[in-house]
Amino acid sequence: MSENAFVVVFPSIFAKNKVNQLESNIKKILKIKNQEFRKIKRDDSVIVIDANDPVFASSAINLLFGIKKVAIAKQVKNDFNTIVSEITKIGSNLLLKGEKFYVQVEGFSTGFLTKDI
Hints:
4-stranded antiparallel β-sheet; THUMP domain-containing protein; alpha+beta
């Protein structure tokens, strides 16, 4: 995958107060499954993993208890035109003609509202 693809882990309600232990368990499961990663960091309530292979890393992480959901995300500049063009590019690569998909934008934006996307 590209250089700016990350694995994003959303902790479940049971793990909200044990995020440090969840981070430790993520490191352990990646080591057990021989999945290399560059770094693990927190961004608000989510854990972001910079993994060499996000697909296999997300599959391994999803085995752990205390995880609500795991997603593979691409980091882009916080600019309306950049975000729309990346969504369009990824959607055109993944979908067949006539298929529909749902985009959920979370977080903070400057210069536009997230519902505009």
